[in-house]
Design a protein that fits this description.
Layout: H1 3-14, E1 19-22, H2 26-32, E2 44-47, E3 52-57, H3 58-64, E4 72-75, H4 82-92, E5 100-103, H5 109-117, E6 123-126, H6 131-135, H7 140-163, H8 170-183, E7 187-195, E8 215-225, E9 228-229, E10 232-238, H9 245-262, H10 269-282, E11 294-296, E12 303-307, E13 320-323, E14 326-329, E15 333-336, E16 339-344, E17 347-350, E18 359-360
Parallel strand pairs: 1-5, 3-4, 5-6, 10-18
Antiparallel strand pairs: 1-2, 2-3, 7-8, 8-9, 8-10, 11-12, 13-16, 14-15, 16-17
Helix pairs in contact: 7-8, 9-10
Length: 361
């Protein structure tokens, strides 16, 4: 049994959780290193506080058996999953009434309903206080993997801004970055390239828009290597910066610094958001900060903890998340500066080594 599963089971006891159910998701990758084929056939890891087993379609079982010593309860297309699921639950002793069940929030709804329908009056929630709680606290090995991905992002961002020249399209720069990642053994995860007014759309899709002299450029990129991703945003200008750009950049940088200064174990996530948002609001750009200050990063690009105005999450040593305040001026330009931080014992550790200063071409 994996050490992570044992930690989750101990956490289940602490939170009075009777049953934990995980689908074929990043949760299962983190927990057991399993990534079974996912389709409409139900796949579930089901755990009590001292036992665990896996419901698995028979046609997928052989490819996964060598990755875990947990018992498999297999079923064929001809049989359906119900009998195998009932046997699994009986062998785990999960037959009582009103069991407290923690469900994988990313699992297919029909998988969840199948499981809940096999229990007697279950009480159900999600993994927030159990698996997700532990998964948010990255260990040293995860830190090293995230740091490695961040180093590739640093190099890709530097190369992308050096590649810029008037006349090329956002899509050309997008393709350059993706090729850069592949050449270094990483998989492109996402790429946003926004010239001029397109930088004012936080989730812009790179387009045929052509770079012109005196344009601003916003680039938000991430790759994945050894199972873990990166995420970073930087901005710059080609030629003369448009009116107000440098002032806005300075405000966003001050917001990043204020958020970083607030990061330490024991602080609420909402306090980090408030620190960044306060700087931007004081400068008169409050309505132009259109999103939360950050999101967690781990196996998934977006995962807990979320750095929002309403988050009650208490930061713990090992939490990893983005700090990415932005100011978006419709029809003109946008400035977002994003770094990933690790919550250390004494405060934040920024994974990127790249300056947030605006690139100049």
């Amino acid at each position: 049994m994996s050490s992570r599963l044992q930690r989750v089971q101990a956490r289940m006891a602490q939170t009075n959780t009777d049953l934990l159910v995980v689908g074929p998701s990043s949760h299962l990758v983190w927990l057991l290193g399993l990534s079974p084929h996912g389709d409409e056939r139900p796949v579930m890891l089901i755990a009590t506080r001292d036992k665990a087993a896996i419901l698995m379609p028979a046609l997928n079982a052989d490819s996964q058996r060598g990755l875990t010593d947990l018992p498999f309860y297999t079923w064929s297309d001809a049989e359906g999953p119900n009998v195998a699921l009932a046997n699994l639950l009986a062998d785990l002793g999960a037959t009582g009434e009103s069991l407290s069940v923690a469900l994988d929030e990313t699992m297919r709804a029909d998988f969840a309903l199948l499981l809940l329908g096999a229990l007697k009056s279950p009480r159900h929630g999600f993994l927030n206080d159990t698996l997700s709680f532990l998964r948010a606290q990255k260990d040293g090995a995860e830190f090293d993997l995230l740091k490695g991905a961040a180093r590739i992002d640093d190099a890709a961002m530097t190369a992308a801004f050096a590649f810029l020249k008037p006349g090329m399209s956002e899509l050309e720069v997008d393709a350059f970055i993706r090729d850069f990642f592949r050449q270094r053994g990483a998989r492109p995860e996402f790429t946003i390239v926004g010239f001029g007014e397109n930088g004012a759309f936080p989730h812009h899709h790179s387009s045929e828009r052509v770079l012109k002299a005196n344009d601003t450029v916003l680039i938000d990129i991430g790759c994945r290597i050894n199972g873990y991703p990166s995420d970073m945003t930087r901005v710059g200008t080609v030629g003369q910066a448009p009116e107000g750009f440098d002032d806005v950049h300075a405000v966003v940088e001050q917001a990043v610094q204020a958020a970083l200064a607030a990061v330490r174990p024991g602080v609420r996530a909402s306090e980090i958001d408030a620190a960044a948002r306060g700087v931007i609001s004081a400068a008169g750009y409050g309505p132009n900060f259109l999103h939360r200050t950050g999101h967690g990063l781990g196996i998934d690009v977006h995962e807990p903890p979320y750095i929002t105005a309403t988050s009650e999450t208490i930061l713990e040593e090992g939490h990893v998340f983005s700090i990415e305040p932005g100011i978006y001026l419709a029809g003109r330009f946008g400035v977002r500066l994003e770094d990933i931080v690790f919550v250390g014992e004494d405060g934040p550790v920024v994974l990127s080594d790249l300056s947030r200063a605006a690139f100049r071409r």
